[in-house]
Every structure is written in structure tokens, then in C-alpha cells.
Amino acid sequence: MADLTYLDSRSHSDLRLDLANAANRHFVQVVAEEMPVAANEYPIFFTKNPQTGSFYAGVVMGLEAGTNLYAANGELPGYRPADLVRQGFFLSDGQIAIDPESPAFIPDGKPIFDERGEATPVLQAVQRAMHMLEKGLPETDAILARFVEHRLLEPIDISLDFDDGSRLRLDGLYSTSLDALHSLPDAVALELFRNGDLQIAYIQAASINHIRRLAKIRNDRLLAATS
């Protein structure tokens, strides 16, 4: 990443953002606030940060690295997670900054400032996404810390077979253990309920059925390529 530059309407009046930036993202981080909406379309799993070993949540958009099965020409037809919306933008000392060399900025993208130097709806969406992440990342970390404390996360290995004879295995993913959840003492379950954690647990566990949709999309594309 290049040096960050603080965003201002005069210096960046011609800056344009690529909204079709999802083509190569097969796993996108999400925060708890997004999960009720994201779970309508995507499977949600937990995985570990390879540097820190800490858990974080994300949506699976592809079954292979670098391939997004939901995106058409890089653009998502449905919900765009905040982490995709804010691509190229960062918070630095409480101010919005940009990476001028980010591939999220392209000459034929959508303008972020209008002719008066005011934020366009595109930039307003970025600002909302960054606010959501700033607030949601520590909240989600706290939820996952409680899940770990009560041993509610379990590894889940997914193997998928396709009509061309190929097989894909998804490793390193974790899901909420409903068995462990239902075995919790009443006092602990009540505490998790009051924190809103139970809602997240059930939403995540139900969302994994979308893996079947991803497998069907990939299988249909394989068949189309051979017909």
C-alpha cells in the first residue's frame, strides 16, 4: 500500500471509484451489524487471521481463491459488504484518507465529488461503510471472544463434488456449534441472548446452506463451458 493521502474535494475532484470491484474477492469480511442482511444471500463463516490467530467473520463469495461466483463483471447484484464499499479508503487519525494507487480508483468509475465539491451518493456510501466498520469491528471481535470463551465455534470441512468429476474442499472455516449452544447453562444462554449473540449464532448457522447455491453456480458454469 502506498502512502495515504487525506481526502479533500479540491485535490481529488476528479477521483472516480470502481463499483465493480468484487470480481477477485472470494471471501469478504463482515461485521455483526451486516449479518442479518448478508445472510439472505451469502454463506457466513468464521476463520482465523493467519497473522494473529484471532477469529473474524466473512461471507464466502467463491469456492476458489480469486473467483467471485456472485459477481457479474465484478459487480454484485445484491448486498455489497462494507469492506467492499470502502475499498481504497481508510481512516487515519479520525480523517478519511485514500491510497492513490489503489485499483479501486479508475478513470471511468463513478465520481465521488460533484461539480460543487460536495460528496456524491457514492462517497456517502463509503462514509457509511467506514462508520459501520469502525463501530462494528470491535463489537464483532467481542462477540467472537464470547463464542470462543464458551467453546461455541467448531471447524467445518466442506467437500463439494461436481459433474465434471472435480472436487473442491474448503478448509479453515468455522461455524457456530448449535449442539454446544443448546448445552449452555441457562445463565450463560441468557447473557448471550441479552448481548444479541444468540441472534448472530443462529443467523450464521442458517446461512451456510447458501454453499449449495455457490456449488450450483459453479457446476452450471462448468457444464456451460463444455457444451
UniProtKB/TrEMBL annotation:
InterPro entries for the chain: SapC
Protein known as: SapC
Top-rank lineage group of the source organism: Bacteria
A Pfam family it matches: SapC
Biological source species: Croceibacterium atlanticum
